[in-house]
Specification:
about 50% helix; about 850 residues; alpha+beta; 6-stranded mixed beta barrel
């Protein structure tokens, strides 16, 4: 049999059908435009915000590299730098830390850096060059401003550097400066290689974690070919190059794919599927109605020999034509909408980027939006296409649509109701979650009182050694005397290890040491089974855990989160706790759960570290060098009963964490009895009258600026203002999503009604020919719309209520910054608009259709 080339005939049939029935296909094109606009807007806004947040996060991290090794010796650097799977490797060497008086509130680090590492770390000079001579230096504009110098090059500045606890003062010529990021925790001082080799020569031995041993060590930054699962690649790099297993490394969390979280993948996939389904319902419903109206055309084509395969091609070509017209327009409109929305959304993010709020056009993002839009069209046209191909020629001649027993079209009612209800349900769910954002919940762990006073560098994550005795008793007395101050509470701290009796250790071993939580935590730090066993055996031999002992006043204790008390209450009675017989204890916490070290009612012993009990001891090192240290082995030990298990808010504790963090809390007077009355507080918190907050804020600002510049303070107002933009962002994004989804619901309904009227024009003309008046037809169409409206209202309200009471409640309960509130407001706002459309659209569409005579409409299929 000869193969007939009928491609041109199929193309002509496909395109002529569209040309002769423009009105129906224009609505279908509009549906495709709407779907493409949705995907394009989401992809463009999402991609641009990911790009902006990623760049901002990189600036917080301090570089664009994928990961980095810390504290390497020169030999270790040579050992790994030529690995073939690394696409970029550069390094810097720690020299010391800035110690100028002007740097009290400006944490500074001094390095020799390769040019490439400085560029990747956003610290390359914007003017001048990297240092080459011993007396040359590159600093940030902030450092120059702190020194009172103009932001320029060529001048001489004096910098005091702490190098291995020795202060080295030098006069440097500024050969270049860079612009500091406000969000960067540390300011860089770059010196020449000759200066580094003279004062901080390359380390040649493995890192020992002894104070000062980090000077002269390499920080090596590197990139792989891509950012997928960076942590796994780093672990493989360590194994491949033979680096020591305990090498300290960091992953750049700016890269979203640095570690693959299955839950995030599932959530993103679910969101894409939901939006595709929403677009599918819009296009499928209209496409199905169009196919039904064209079914007689397909029957006639079958009678003259057109095959099912050729009919499918005709429908596919029409779908492709609709896509070619609708998708580019939708994507273009989506880009414009995204360009309008991005400055609004970006302005609410605490990001600092060069192109903040700008649209980052990425061809792959636009192609992704186009592909998803096209797939939606293809999936939507699939079933109607098969329907057209399967119907026999005889059936198609008399086929109009499938009806149920009541004479109503089958399936169409369900599809329309589902499409409208889905948009309303998604809208209500998104609004219910986003509107639950609580600023009080968000900042409650960051600031628990009206004011907090502490060392200026205490909460700076870039500062390695924290000063925890900065607030004197004299200052506390002054604070208590201020007008409007209601309460002043100190937070003292003693770092070290907690000692346990044999009975207590047996309980800790069962609760913690043998738990899956510890196994998972150590595995995350690179411990295998043998390493974990050795670690546990070491702790068991010593019967100690790392932990801090706090002393707190009444106000601070009142801010603790109470987990469990000895009397079953959810509060700590200050008078009982302050009797001197009780202690509070924290839990062992990981990302996957918590477990008690010990329980309320258990007894623990705490050693005194009062200087009067210290004994000078001597020890001889392996090299024969003799050292002296103060021993408290013979100091008295006091027994306390555990009053409660608690959690310490970030705003009260020391932001340094160990493996276990078994922390104790004593009343402040009891703490000072154990550790000496001269012990100063780490921080002080205050509650003041609302009317006096401005006065106290001005007093603290003046005091920390002129009297004790080494101190700094936080206020509830300043923290709330700092994070208020985050709350505004949630509201703006929620409003944008609400508008987009609301429009989808309304336009979907409008499209359905208009398309239905257009494709039924012949049917309505026949009814008019046998005596049905225009008014009766309008009322009939409005009743049909009301049926859609009532069912959509019932279904959307029921499903929204169920989701709000289950999924949304579970999500808000799981996220600390959200409060759950039952709401159906979006549904109740949108439903009246749908009801108005029910009344207006049929009238408008019918009036336009009725302008064509009954005879002409009867001639049209």
């Amino acid at each position: 049999m000869n193969k007939v080339n009928n491609r041109n005939a199929v193309n002509n049939l496909a395109f002529s059908g569209v040309k002769t029935k423009k009105n129906k296909y224009i609505i279908l094109v509009l549906a495709v435009i709407l779907t493409s606009l949705l995907f394009s807007t989401l992809f463009s806004v999402g991609g641009s915000m990911v790009n902006e947040v990623q760049e901002s996060t990189m600036r917080q991290v301090g570089g664009t590299f994928h990961a980095g090794f810390k504290y390497l010796s020169k030999d270790e650097y040579e050992q790994m730098k030529d690995d073939p799977k690394l696409k970029f490797v550069s390094y810097r060497i720690l020299v010391g830390f800035g110690e100028n008086e002007e740097f009290t509130k400006l944490y500074t680090e001094c390095y020799y850096s390769e040019d490439e590492d400085a560029k990747e770390s956003f610290c390359y000079p914007v003017k001048g060059k990297m240092p080459a001579e011993e007396n040359e230096v590159v600093v940030s504009d902030k450092i120059l401003e702190a020194l009172g110098e103009p932001v320029d090059i060529g001048m001489t500045i004096r910098i005091d550097l702490n190098i291995n606890d020795e202060i080295i003062s030098n006069d440097f010529t500024v050969c270049g400066y860079y612009e500091a990021d406000p969000i960067c925790p540390a300011q860089m001082i770059y010196v020449s290689k000759s200066f580094q080799e003279k004062y901080a020569p390359d380390a040649t031995t493995p890192y020992s974690a002894v104070r000062g041993d980090d000077v002269g060590r390499y920080s090596v930054d590197f990139k792989f070919s891509n950012s997928i699962n960076i942590e796994k690649k780093v672990e493989e790099l360590i194994a491949r190059t033979g680096l020591r297993e305990d090498v300290d490394y960091g992953i750049n969390w700016a890269y979203g794919a640095s570690s693959i979280d299955p839950s995030v993948v599932v959530i993103c996939a679910a969101l894409i599927i939901i939006f595709m389904f929403a677009g599918y319902l819009i296009i499928y419903n209209i496409f199905d109605i169009n196919i039904v109206s064209d079914i007689q055309e397909f029957g006639l084509l079958k009678t003259i020999g057109t095959t099912e395969k050729q009919l499918k091609k005709i429908v596919r070509k029409r779908a492709n034509l609709i896509s070619i017209i609708g998708i580019p327009i939708g994507i273009g409109l989506g880009v414009l909408v995204a360009a309008y929305l991005l400055p609004i959304i970006s302005g609410q993010f605490d990001t600092l980027t060069v192109g903040k709020g700008g649209l980052h056009i990425n061809i792959w993002i636009l192609m992704g939006a186009a592909v998803f839009s096209y797939l939606t069209v293809i999936f939507s046209s699939g079933k109607p296409c098969r329907k057209a191909a399967r119907v026999s020629p005889v059936e198609t001649v008399k086929y109009t649509e499938e009806f149920d027993k009541k004479g109503k079209p089958k399936k169409k009612l369900g599809v329309v109701i589902l499409s409208i209800s889905l948009a309303l349900v998604i809208l209500n769910s998104v609004f219910g979650f986003v509107s639950g954002f609580s600023m009080d919940q968000y900042v409650k762990n960051l600031i628990v009182s009206d004011f907090s006073i502490q060392d200026a560098e205490l909460d700076n994550p870039g500062v390695r050694y924290k000063y925890t005795e900065a607030v004197s008793h004299e200052l506390m007395d002054e604070l208590r005397s201020l007008d409007g101050v209601n309460s002043v509470s100190a937070v003292y701290i003693k770092e070290g290890f907690q000692e346990f009796s044999e009975d207590n250790w047996a309980k800790i071993d069962k609760n913690v040491m043998q738990s899956e939580l510890l196994k998972e935590k150590l595995a995350g730090h690179g411990y295998d089974d043998q390493m974990r066993k050795d670690e546990i055996d070491h702790y068991a031999e010593e019967r100690t855990l790392d932990g801090k002992t706090y002393g707190m006043g009444e106000l601070a204790v009142d801010k603790l989160k109470v987990i469990e008390t000895k009397d079953g209450s959810d509060k700590i009675d200050w008078n009982t706790f302050n009797s001197g017989n009780y202690v509070l204890i924290t839990r062992f916490e990981t990302d996957n759960g918590e477990v008690n070290f010990l329980d309320p009612g258990d007894k623990i012993s705490i050693r005194s570290y009062d200087p009067e009990y210290g004994e000078t001891q001597k020890v001889v090192s392996e090299s024969g060098e003799e050292f002296e240290y103060i021993s408290f082995d013979n100091a008295p030990v006091k027994e306390y009963e555990i009053y409660a298990v608690v959690e310490i808010p970030i705003a009260l504790g020391l932001r340094c964490y160990g493996t276990f963090d078994c922390d104790y809390i004593l009343p402040e007077d009891e703490f000072r009895k154990l550790n000496g009355s001269d012990w100063n507080a780490m921080r002080v918190i205050m509650d003041v009258d609302d009317s006096k907050e401005g006065y106290v804020n001005d007093w603290l600002k003046n005091y920390t600026t002129t009297v004790e510049p080494a101190l700094d303070y936080d206020s509830k107002e300043s923290v709330t203002e700092e994070y208020a933009s985050f709350g505004r962002m949630f509201k703006v994004v929620g409003a944008v999503i609400a508008v987009v989804l609301g429009l989808i619901g309304l336009m979907n309904f409008a499209n359905t009604i208009i398309t239905s009227i257009i494709v039924r024009s012949r049917e309505l003309a026949m009814l008019e020919a046998v005596g049905m008046t225009g008014k009766q037809q309008r009322i009939s169409l409005m009743k049909e719309g009301c049926r859609y409206f009532i069912w959509s209202a019932v279904v959307s309200l029921v499903i929204s209520s169920v989701l709000n009471l289950t999924l949304i409640k579970a999500l808000t309960d799981a996220v600390p910054m959200f409060d759950w509130n039952f709401t159906l407001v979006p549904n109740l706002v949108c439903l009246p608009f749908i009801l108005i459309l029910v009344i207006i659209i049929p009238v408008i569409a019918y009036n336009k259709m009725s302008k064509v005579s009954v005879v002409d409409r009867l001639r049209v299929e």
